[in-house]
Amino acid sequence: MLGYYVPEPDEAMLISGKKSAQGNAPFDVVVGHGKWVMPIFRKVRFLSMAMHEAQIREVCVTTQGIQLNVRAVIAHKVGGDVVSIVNAGQRFISEQEDEMNQLTGQIFSGHLRSIVGSMTVEQIIRERDTLARQVLEASKREMGSIGLMVDSFQIQSIDDMESGYINALAAPNIAKVQREAAVERARAEQEASKAQQESLRNQADYERETSIKRAEIKSETDKANAEAAQSGPLAEARVNQEVIREQSELAKAQADLREQQLISEVVKPAEAEARRTQIIAEADARAVEISSAAAAKNNRIALDQQLIEQLPALVGEVAKGLGGANLTVFNGAEGVNEIMTGVITQGAALLKALQSEVTPTVVDGTAEQSESI
Hints:
The chain is an alpha+beta fold. The protein has a domain at about 5-170: Band 7 domain (Tetrahydropterin Synthase, Chain A, 2-Layer Sandwich), CATH 3.30.479.30. Helix content is about 65%, strand content about 15%. It is built from 6 helices and 10 strands, in the order βββββββααααβααββ. It has helices at about 80-90, 95-115, 120-125, 130-145, 165-325, 330-355; strands at about 5, 10-15, 30, 35, 45-50, 50-60, 65-80, 150-160, 360-365, 365-370. Strands 3-2-5 form a 3-stranded antiparallel beta sheet, covered by helices on one side. A hairpin with a 2-residue loop joins β9 (about 360-365) and β10. The chain is elongated.
C-alpha cells in the first residue's frame, strides 16, 4: 500500500531503498513538497534543517605563555543544497542535534586554540572581532565538508584565569576612568549645587513676585469693588449728562434750522423787496434828473433865443439914444463906424450879462428862471 509523505518546512525528507535520481547520492532528497513512497521497499527519514547552537569553553595559551579561558557560541545549521543535505544526512541522521553540536564545538575549539596561540593578550582583548573572524574563516571549510554552515560565531568572554595580567593591563585605564569619573562626579555635584541654588533663587523670586502679584490683585480688586459701588450713580450721572448734551445739541440744531427758515421766509424776501424798491426809486430819480436836465437845457436854449431876438431891438434903442445925443465925430465915417462897433460890442456884453444873470433852477422836478435884472 502506497504512502504519501510531506516534510516540515525546516526538514529535508530522505528516501532510501533504490538508486537515487540525484547523481551519486545514496538516497533521494525532498525539500518543500510531498511525495508518494512505496512501503516495505522504500524507507523515509527526516533531517532537521533548523538552527542549532553550540557552546564552547576552551583554555588557550597566547604567544606570551599566558593562559586564557575563552567562551564562545556558534549558530549553525544544515546547508540548503542537496550536497550539504546528503553530507549531513550521512553523519547526523540518528542523533542529529547532539552529534551536530558536539562535532561543531570540536572543530571551532581546535581553530580557536590555534589562532589564540598566534596572538598576544593585548591583541586578543583589543581585537576580539578579528579573532572571531579568523576562527570563523578557518572553520568554514571543515563545516562545509560535513554539510553544515555557520551563521555566526561570537566570543562571549575572555579571562586570564585569575593571573592578574588582564587586570594589570586594565589598571591604567581603570585609574583614568576613575579619575574621569571623579571629575565628572565633581562636575555633576557642582552642577547639582548650582542648579539647587538657582532653584532656590527662582523660588525666592517666585515668592516675591507672587507677593507683589497678590498685592496688585488685591489693589485692583479693591479698586474694582469701589468702582462697582460707584458705578450705579456714576453711570446714571453719565447718562443724564449724555441726555442733556443730546438735548442741547438738538435744541441748537432746531434753533439753527429756525434761523435758516426765518432768513429764507422773512429776511431774504424783505431784503429783496427793499432792494426792488431802492432800484425803482433810483430809477425814478434818475429819470426825473434826466427830465429836469433836459427841461433846463430846453429853457436855456429858449432864453438865449429870446435874448438874441431882442438884441437888435436893444441895439436899436441904443442907436436911437445916440441919435438924439449931441455927439461930435471927428474922423467922419470912420468915427461913426467905431461908434457903431462899440454899440454892438456893448450889446453883446449885455447879452452875456443877461445870460449869466438868468439861470434855470430845478425845483421839485421843474425848471424855474431866476432874474436879477
